[in-house]
Write a structure and sequence with these properties.
Elements (H helix, E strand, L loop, with lengths): L1 E7 L2 E6 L10 E8 L3 H8 L9 E2 L4 E8 L11 E4 L9 H4 L27 E3 L2 H4 L1 E2 L6 H5 L1 H13 L9 E4 L3 H12 L5 E4 L3 H10 L3 E3 L6 H8 L5 E6 L7 H8 E9 L24 E4 L6 H12 L9 E6 L4 H10 L6 E5 L4
Parallel strand pairs: 9-10, 9-12, 10-11, 12-13, 13-14, 15-16
Antiparallel strand pairs: 1-2, 1-4, 3-5, 3-7, 3-16, 5-6, 6-8
Helix pairs in contact: 5-6, 5-10, 6-7, 8-9
The structure holds nicotinamide-adenine-dinucleotide (NAD) and zinc ion (ZN).
The site of zinc ion (ZN) has 5 residues, from loops.
C-alpha cells in the first residue's frame, strides 16, 4: 500500500509498504478521514522521539474495517470505526496498574507513527481490536469523530489531571486544538473562572465557545504576572500546559498556581534537555503545588464516552476543524499546513475515498 512517511529526521515522502499481517485479535483498517497532529511535527522536524526510517506518519483516524483476526468478536469487514490514537496492550502489567497508555514501555500505548506505521496510508493495523475500536455512532460525522481520538482525549485528560475544584479557577496555556479541548474539559468538570493564554484569533473565538471567561495574550507580558494581576495576586487552582516553550512556560505555570494547586502538563516537550522548575515560585519545593502529566488515553471505552459528550450536545468537536482536504495525496499538504500553522488554522482533516 501507499503511505506518507517520515523518511528520516527532517525528511518526509511517499513510501510503498506491504499490508501488515492481521493477528488473531487484530484488525486491518482502511482510513476514511485522518488528521495530522502537532506531535507528527515534533517527531519529524525536531526528532523528538529519535530517528525513524520510512515510518508512515499519522495517528488520528476514522475508518472502515477490511479484515479481522479469528478471535475478534465485535467487528466485521465493512464496519465504520473510531480508532483511538493510543491503542494499549490491555493485558500488559502497566494496564493492570492503571496506566494503559504506558504499556510495554514508557509511551508504549502510542504505537501509530511512534514505533509502527501510522494511519497516513491506504491500510493500517490495529492491535487488540475488540478493546481498542469503537463503532462510529450515527449522528457523529467523520470530521467530528477524528477530533476525539487524540485532541479531545488528550486535552480533556489535561483537565481531568488538573484536580479542578467545583467553581475553581483554571488557566490553560496554549490554545491549539489540545488546549482548546482542555478548556472544554475544564468547563465540563466545573471550572468557575477560566483563563486561556493564546493569540490566534480563530483559537480565541473557539476558546470562548468552549468556555473560556478571560483571554490572556502572552505576547503582552509574562502569563503569571497577568494572571496574578487579574486575580488580585491570588493565582489559580489549576494550570494546564498545552503549549509554550521550555524557557518560560514552566515558570509561568508554577508561578500562576496557588499554594496547594495543580499544574497538569500535556505538552510534548522538545527543544531542550531539561525542564526548569522555578525554586522560589514553587515555594522552595514546599508549596504543595503538584505536577501531573500523561499521555492521551486510548481504548474503546474512552472513545465511547467522548463520543457521548458530542452526541448529547455537551460540546462540539467540529469547532476544531478549520480546513478540509480530499484525497490521499492531500495528506502531504495537510501535514505541511500543520507545520506552518497559519493564523486561521486549528486542525485540518483529510477525507479519503479509498478502494
Ligand atoms: P498547537 O501548536 O496548535 O498549540 C500550541 C499553542 O501554543 C499554539 O497556538 C502556540 O501559538 C501557543 N504558544 C506558543 N508559545 C506560547 C507561549 N510562550 N505561551 C503560550 N502559548 C504559546 O499544538 P496542539 O496541536 O494544540 O498540541 C499541543 C501540544 O500537545 C503539542 O506539543 C503536541 O505535540 C502535544 N500533544 C500531546 C499529547 C499527549 O498525549 N500528551 C497528545 C497530542 C498532542
Ligand atoms: Zn497526536
Amino acid at each position: 500500500f501507499k503511505g506518507f512517511a517520515m523518511k528520516k529526521i527532517g525528511e518526509t515522502g511517499w513510501v510503498e509498504k506491504e499490508v501488515p499481517e492481521c493477528g488473531p485479535m487484530d484488525a486491518i483498517i482502511k482510513p476514511t478521514c485522518v488528521s495530522p497532529c502537532t506531535s507528527d511535527i515534533h517527531t519529524v522536524w525536531e526528532g523528538a522521539i529519535g530517528e525513524r526510517t520510512d515510518m508512515v506518519l499519522g495517528h488520528e483516524a476514522v475508518g472502515e474495517v477490511v479484515e479481522v483476526g479469528s478471535l475478534v468478536k465485535k467487528f466485521k469487514p465493512g464496519d465504520k470505526v473510531i480508532v483511538p490514537a493510543i491503542t494499549p496492550d490491555w493485558d500488559d502489567e502497566a494496564s493492570q496498574r492503571g496506566f494503559p497508555s504506558q504499556t510495554t514501555e514508557p509511551l508504549g500505548g502510542w504505537k501509530f507513527s511512534n514505533f509502527k506505521d501510522g494511519v497516513f496510508g491506504e491500510r493500517f493495523h490495529v492491535n487488540m481490536a475488540d478493546a481498542n475500536l469503537t463503532i462510529l455512532p450515527d449522528g457523529l460525522s467523520d470530521e467530528a469523530a477524528v477530533m476525539l481520538v487524540d485532541m479531545w482525549s488528550t486535552g480533556m485528560m489535561g483537565s481531568e489531571n488538573a484536580d479542578i475544584p467545583l467553581g475553581g479557577s483554571v488557566l490553560v496555556i496554549g490554545i491549539g486544538a489540545v488546549g482548546l479541548s482542555a478548556i472544554a474539559g475544564a468547563k465540563l468538570l466545573g471550572a468557575g473562572r477560566l483563563f486561556a493564554a493564546g493569540t490566534r484569533p480563530i483559537s480565541v473565538e473557539v476558546a470562548k465557545k468552549y468556555g473560556a471567561t478571560d483571554i490572556i495574550n502572552y505576547r503582552e507580558g509574562p502569563i503569571d504576572e497577568q494572571v496574578r494581576e487579574l486575580t488580585g495576586g491570588e493565582g489559580v487552582d489549576s494550570v494546564i500546559i498545552a503549549g509554550g516553550n521550555l524557557e518560560n512556560t514552566w515558570k509561568e505555570a508554577i508561578s500562576s498556581a496557588k499554594a496547594g494547586g495543580t499544574v497538569s502538563n500535556v505538552n510534548y516537550l522538545s527543544g531542550a534537555d531539561n525542564v526548569l522548575i522555578p525554586r522560589v515560585e514553587w515555594g522552595c519545593g514546599m508549596s504543595n503545588i503538584s505536577i501531573h502529566n500523561g499521555l492521551c488515553p486510548g481504548g474503546a471505552v474512552r472513545m465511547e464516552r467522548l463520543a457521548d459528550l458530542a452526541l448529547y450536545g455537551r460540546q462540539d468537536p467540529e469547532l476544531l476543524v478549520t480546513h478540509k482536504f480530499k484525497g490521499l495525496d492531500k495528506i502531504e499538504d495537510a501535514l505541511y499546513l500543520m507545520k506552518e500553522k497559519p493564523k486561521d488554522l486549528i486542525k485540518p482533516v483529510v477525507m479519503l475515498d479509498l478502494d
